[in-house]
Amino acid sequence: LGHPQGSELGNWALGHWTEEGYDLFENFPDLASALWAAEERKLVPHKFPNHHIPIPEHYLAEDTTVAVETRAIMAWMDKNPFVLGANLQGGEKLVSYPFDTARPLSETAPRPPDYEDDHLELQETPDHAIFRWLAISYASAHLTMTETFRGGCHTQDVTDTMGIVQGAKWHPRAGSMNDFSYLHTNCLELSLYLGCDKFPHESELQQEWENNKESLLTFMEQVHRGIKGLVRDQQGEPIANATIVVGGINHNVKTGRVQGRVVAPAPPPAHLPPRSPLSPAAAGGDYWRILNPGEYRVWARAEGYNPSVKTCSVFYDIGATQCDFVLARSNWKRIREIMAMNGNRPVRRLPPGRPLT
């Protein structure tokens, strides 16, 4: 879907951009800078979200220089609830993970002696440890990626002998596909650089496949690490767009409705009749959250419902832990209606026995 047009004519100087001159990997909206600007103004998370950040209006304008392929990829990602992603590239041999964008130094932060106006700092994602786990899962299973004693492909090794590097440390750039996936969707996406030869000869393809085969399989297995579950109301109906919050990680994911697939339903409450496994109610309210092994406090929240919290454990063995939630309706909607009628002022408490006027 994002394969540049005319790449069969490519070489080290050509083929990285589309025929129209777009670098597809860097053609996405820069949501990281928007998030950091909101953090500087202390708007996160109450007035500006730390996840599913909306696409800026100026980026959606018809005269914006956005590739057709980029728009198609964004629509594809909005339609499908991807959990783990990778884009495969060549010319290097390493795994790169977000953030790819380097954060400008805060206006209130102390300036180092060698400070310049364009000074940038490395900003880790809230899921930094998880991204490193995912990156290492690929690099360590690759036949040669961690053999960094020979140096990097074209320069010195930038991965500190691990075969992995944060994008902003190696090649800082705004508007990357990896940053967009992380900040706009539930998906954790990394860049896999498969080998030093950007355009391997046909005779080398078999060896390149052997180098990367086990890595690809190991990486895909990681989608089954973490927690997963269903968020439902007390009648057993799924709740779309509920927010899943993991304690200690300032980045949330959402439940959603998935078209065209059936999710095995949780047993309904005892007072309700059994539900058919093919009922529409079984096709939504589901979530997946990749996490490293450990014990986590997890909250499920949704508009119009009281939040629910439980402890969920993630183990080293492959297989996501089932962590379901049942939310009870709250009376916040009615309270807000009364507040609006009262001009959003606190409602005056009446003395006992005094009639309501």
UniProtKB/TrEMBL annotation:
Keyword terms, alphabetized: Glycoprotein
| Name of one Pfam family that matches | Peptidase_M14
Q: Which residues form the Peptidase M14 domain?
A: 1-223
- Give any GO molecular function from the UniProt entry: RNA polymerase II transcription regulatory region sequence-specific DNA binding
One GO cellular component term: extracellular space
**Similarity section:** Belongs to the peptidase M14 family.
The major lineage groups are: Eukaryota, Metazoa, Chordata, Craniata, Vertebrata
* The organism's place on the tree of life at top rank: Eukaryota
**Signal in keyword set:** no
**GO terms, biological process:** peptide metabolic process; protein processing
Q: What is this protein called?
A: AEBP1 protein
Please name the Gene3D superfamilies in this protein's record: Carboxypeptidase-like, regulatory domain, Zn peptidases
Natural source organism: Hemiprocne comata
Annotated coiled-coil segments of the chain: none
Would the keyword Translocase be found if you checked this record's keyword annotation? no
